[in-house]
Write the structure tokens for this entry.
Amino acid sequence: MVLIEGIAFPVGKINKNGWGIPSSERDNAISSLLRSVVRICSRDNEHGCDLTEDPKGEIGRVVDAWSIDDDIWIRAEITDLVAQQKIVEGTWEHTWSVFGISESLNEGWVEGYENRSVTLVRNPAWNEATFTLLNASHGNPLEKDQLKLVSRYSILETNNGGGTKPMSNFESQQETKETEPEMNQDGKMRIDSTQLASLQAENQKLKEDLTDLNISFETLKKEHESIVMSAAERIPAEKVQEMVDERAKKMSAALMNEWKEEQEKNRATEKYTRSAMAAGLEPDLKLIKNMSSEQIEKLAASYERIAPYSTSRSFNITYPDENGKKVSSLGKWNEAEKRWEDF
């Protein structure tokens, strides 16, 4: 594990990009930093993967955040193995930059700030945005003023001058030899007789446990079947027949109701067709396809009220002219007002 710590940004200071975080946003900044990830993007666009929220660029996460005077400090855990190596070796600069969103920007000051990530960059927007390496000692809590270093690749320890002293290659190789298993020439692990006997005993114990589990399963299965059969036997035959008859009646009633509705719908459809044709209209079977028989009956009745006017008056309606002569005209039926209207 590699831990890094430093100033994320100062509050109340405009950065090189022309914006800043006022002291009023201190709490928002700290709380959202605790939910932020650590990323590194491409050299060409150092915040490119932040804009797309690309998870492939994530190398760790922020684990703590606090403020000292006007500076917001954070501590981050680097979990990516390659990133750990590059940070410890100094391949990547120890500078970073925050990336976030805000509700608005007022004369360069953000309002409603929410931090989303902390990104390793070469040229941070604030000069103060730098970090140092820390070490989480085994079994001991990490203090903010520690300057020890650790990585998965080599153990770094503090010397008297406060710097770091990596283990020598010889020491590292010796430690590796003590922990690595011995291998045969064909690349297979070498196991002595004691280890073999222990593995065989463990394997036998696993087989016995599996057998016991199978027996328990079969026992529970038989008990379940016995309970089901016992429950069935406790129900009298008359009750069973009564349940069957009741179910059959419900099914028969449902089928009968469905058949009746179909017959009524067929009759209503015939009535609708006749009334529509009598009214001089083209029957629209698609219109009534999803209607109930009652709805179709109402539609047919409305067409029947139109039919007398359509057949007797629609093409031969007479009105008196100024000389008292009768002339013909065309019109339409107004269903809402129940009267005939001239076009």
Observations:
- Residues 136-174, 312-319, 324-329 have pLDDT under 50 and may be disordered.
